[in-house]
Amino acid sequence: MVRVKHRYLLLDILYPDPSSWPSSTAPKKAPLQTQSQLRIHSPTSNALTPSLLAKTVREGVADLFGDWGVGRLGGVGAGGVSVKYLSPATSTAIIRCPRASYRLVWMALTYMSCVPEIEGSRSKWSDVAMTRPCVFRVVRVSGTMRKAEEEAIRRARREIVRLRGAEEAGVLGNLVGGLEYEGGSAVVDDVMENEEEDVDMGSDEED
């Protein structure tokens, strides 16, 4: 029996365009670095469902590579691309695709530039207007779902450390050094001691 091999792409949805920032994403009393960080990583609309994201990726592959690309994914109705995890609150997703064609999916994600707006009602998921500008950034390619989940947790912890460091720098009059932490914070020290080392994106790909 032949085992179908897959790849799992962990991706972040980022909002670098100020026009896409919600007004209530970051607290006004927070330092400017913290506000910008929170707005770039702001939540995504619940209108972006796993099925809609998978459909958009398949359409992106079809636009870029035509019938050949769709065939590499397993055909139109084969479900070669599926979204295993999607969190609108953290703008994070994990996409599963065939191992032989994960680069096609990656390229389609690179060219995707819009998601649904935060506000607005819809009657059907197919009627959603993709008008909010964004960037899809692939941060990990793994051979197993577990490795992708571990990387998502590790990156979330690291982001918390960066934001805490920025907040502390604002409170102490920028004496700590902001996001580039160089010492003097017990909170950052305690968290960083428990952090795992960064893993290269392609180092743990499994067959």
UniProtKB/TrEMBL annotation:
GO molecular function: ribonuclease P activity; ribonuclease P RNA binding
Catalytic activity: Endonucleolytic cleavage of RNA, removing 5'-extranucleotides from tRNA precursor
Pfam family, one: RNase_P_Rpp14
The EC number(s) this enzyme carries: 3.1.26.5
Gene Ontology CC, one term: multimeric ribonuclease P complex
InterPro entries reported for this sequence: Pop5/Rpp14/Rnp2-like, Rnp2-like_sf
Keywords: Hydrolase, Nucleus, tRNA processing
Segments for region (Disordered): 21-40
Record has Iron-sulfur as a keyword: no
Gene3D superfamilies hit by this protein: Ribonuclease P, Pop5 subunit (3.30.70.3250)
Class of enzymatic activity (EC top level): hydrolase
Domain of life: Eukaryota
Compartments reported by the entry: Nucleus
GO biological process, one term: maturation of 5.8S rRNA
Membership in a protein family: Belongs to the eukaryotic/archaeal RNase P protein component 2 family.
Role description: Component of ribonuclease P, a protein complex that generates mature tRNA molecules by cleaving their 5'-ends. Also a component of RNase MRP, which cleaves pre-rRNA sequences.
Protein known as: Ribonuclease P/MRP protein subunit POP5
Organism: Aspergillus coremiiformis
